[in-house]
Amino acid sequence: MCTYQTNKVALRGSAKARLGWMKVTDATIYFDHPVHFGAGHALMIDVTDPTKGPDARLALELDPTSARDLAESILRTLEQVPSELLAEFT
Amino acid sequence: MTHNLVADTISIIGHGGDEIEAYLAQPTDVDRVGSIVVIHHMPGYDDATKEICRDFAAHGYNALMPNLYSREAPGASPDDAAAVVRANGGVPDERLVGDVDAAMRHLKSLPHANGRVASIGYCSGGRQSFLAGCRLDLDAVIDCYGAFVTLDAPADMPFKFKAIVGETPNLSAPLLGLFGADDKNPTPDQVGVLERALTDAGKEFEFHSYEGAGHAFFWVGRPSYRPETAVEAWAVIYEFLGRTLA
Is the CB of A4 less than 8 angstroms away from the CB of B185? Predict the structure, then answer.
């Protein structure tokens, strides 16, 4: 099936993509047909700066377990950060 | 018979007077032939769908595929363009109809055209092909596993697709529907809803639901591809076009 299931989130950060390092402002997260990964469906993440054009995009296509492991690892890493280091972002 | 063909990227004037990219494949060893507008799938104006255009030409039909993502992502790779359009909520229905209308008019203007035009679409294009058939004067319509024909897209999605089954009484041409029995979008039940609407409206249609196939069974080179189903369904398509575009 083509799920069309799509979520969006605003970001602040940088990513390295085809054009080199770039500021990123948006992410689209969806579970649908991948372009490259060899599975019928995948968890896909596009991290982008829409003001810089369509190819200002870092794309990930992940199997569901990998996506969950990645998400949990991100949260675990953030929980391990000393609170004083997060003060910069408050 | 396999025809000789030429294929090229051209520009056409689409909805709202916008210049958009399109891919045209034409048989070269024919007199008068039917034509088909090819509506690409959600992943975009890609190599797989260009190959479909060339296959139509090899079978003796002019085929034209408008790049529905031309405006958002001119010159971008198909996957980058599809990512932009997905984030923006898809192609608006009115614009889609305008672009298919432009493609249809271009096909009718070709020197070897017999004046008869079909539309075919895959995935999101399946819904769009049906929509075009309800709003334009076509001679044949083919819907390959189009979703959101009989129900709206969920409100929490960026996509604004609305059910279009209510437009069935306006369908202008015979409809061929090709579906996978294992597909979840559209489900066989949703296909059944469309079937009943067509029957109630007294429309000519032919539906095939293939066991062992899900969504995107025509998509060569991807895990969803089902070679036996695709070969069988291609034969159905060419029989249908032979009957409707002659």
Answer: yes
